[in-house]
Amino acid sequence: RVAPPRNSYGVLCLAFSTISVMLSVVVEHIFLLVIVTLISVLQNAFFATKVEREGKEHNNKTAFERVSCANRNCMDSYPTFLAVMWCAGLCLNQAPAAFAGIIYLVARQKYFVGYMGQTSQSTPGYLFGKRVLAFLILMCIVGIFNYLLVRYFGSDYKDTMEMITNAASALLLIP
Amino acid sequence: RVAPPRNSYGVLCLAFSTISVMLSVVVEHIFLLVIVTLISVLQNAFFATKVEREGKEHNNKTAFERVSCANRNCMDSYPTFLAVMWCAGLCLNQAPAAFAGIIYLVARQKYFVGYMGQTSQSTPGYLFGKRVLAFLILMCIVGIFNYLLVRYFGSDYKDTMEMITNAASALLLIP
Amino acid sequence: RVAPPRNSYGVLCLAFSTISVMLSVVVEHIFLLVIVTLISVLQNAFFATKVEREGKEHNNKTAFERVSCANRNCMDSYPTFLAVMWCAGLCLNQAPAAFAGIIYLVARQKYFVGYMGQTSQSTPGYLFGKRVLAFLILMCIVGIFNYLLVRYFGSDYKDTMEMITNAASALLLIP
Known about the structure:
Order of helices and strands of chain A: HHHHHH
Largest interface: A-C, 37 and 34 residues
CATH superfamily of chain A: Membrane associated eicosanoid/glutathione metabolism-like domain
Oligomer: homotrimer
Distance between the termini of chain A: 69 Å
Subunit structure (chains A, B, C): Homotrimer. Interacts with LTC4S and ALOX5.
Structural class of chain A: mainly alpha
CATH class of chain A: Mainly Alpha
Protein name (chains A, B, C): Arachidonate 5-lipoxygenase-activating protein
Organism (chains A, B, C): Salmo trutta
Membrane topology (chains A, B, C): Multi-pass membrane protein
Transmembrane segments (chains A, B, C): 12-42, 81-107, 128-149
Radius of gyration of chain A: 22 Å
């Protein structure tokens, strides 16, 4: 006869503990992604500062056009990158997604610097970091596929998948 | 005398099960949105490939300008679309949001192809997919309104709202 | 002998209540961010309408170029702003993040209107709202730092941090 009230109290208590656990769990599962996002924002600010400084000088028209074009190409693919990285991090695991994000940021930095320094006849192409984005898209697909497998067949391959993607993300380092 | 340890064990056990339930719940409530995001990313890659191919040919200046302009207009509204779709999916229900996202992607594909093929005096306008975005914004507003109603009045209209939006999303198919 | 089934029933019951609690918790912790995102989307639509109207008139070339440039500068920094605001809101607290977002939107509106109205020799710079973005980045860093402190040292400074950021966000009003 004492069990039901204790149980209902337990439910209340657990609902509250769930909420506080959940919040720290949310931060726990995204903090690497947030850090990479912050780094990318600082890189954006660096690019924008470069554009603004070139725009103020007014004496070098081609240099301004080149840095502005490099900045625009980087900014065009920025939302795509953010969306893919966050989806991959949420669906499967944040560590390889954040690692791939760092690789992408390094590739973007190289692209921007290469764009600024080169003459116009040998500018780098419009696209960059294709391999990293393809890897992140693959991670998303694997994560969703895994979720559907678990839902309809009840077997959880997530641990295996995470191990494989952790290993595969090291392959991105090979140039 | 046995109850407290079992209870505290149950709390621990539930905290862990909560975390694992929560993660699959997170994926469960966003996987349609993730799929639509992936499709939009692949479409972005298709657009960017078109721009890169036109840029490499160098013999057709107006064709490059047109495809570049179409790509830029699409990219300009891309973050807006992503933000609205995810907000609508998180606040109310993912199914109609993902459906509206698919409709938007089809409209964008039509816009891009139409922009490339047409002569300059009859280019399509700067905006496209206004109806879909308006529908998604409406979904966000309904979701937040519903949350505030539940919080301050305690009556849950979410089921009714979801049914209505599910029905309304079918109306988007009418051209 | 009755305890195990009741317990397992309680687990099931709590798993369901957790899911429903979690969903309303998710909306509870992001609804201010969603509202600010919606306002920013409406502002984007306002900018795009301005660009489209100027583009249709065709008689004022410099006005179109200026409004198009202002729109592009605003759109370039839009994903950065969204990413930083959501990260700050998720990591620490949504109220100061949403407040800083509103301040940013006001700064953007001023920038756009100022860009349209001014003559070309005194256009405002490429960047705007730097202080707000710096504040949001700081909030992200504080939130992650706080999470790492809690994880490795077990002391929770989150309440203190939230109070400080709530107070600091009022400082943004000083022009």
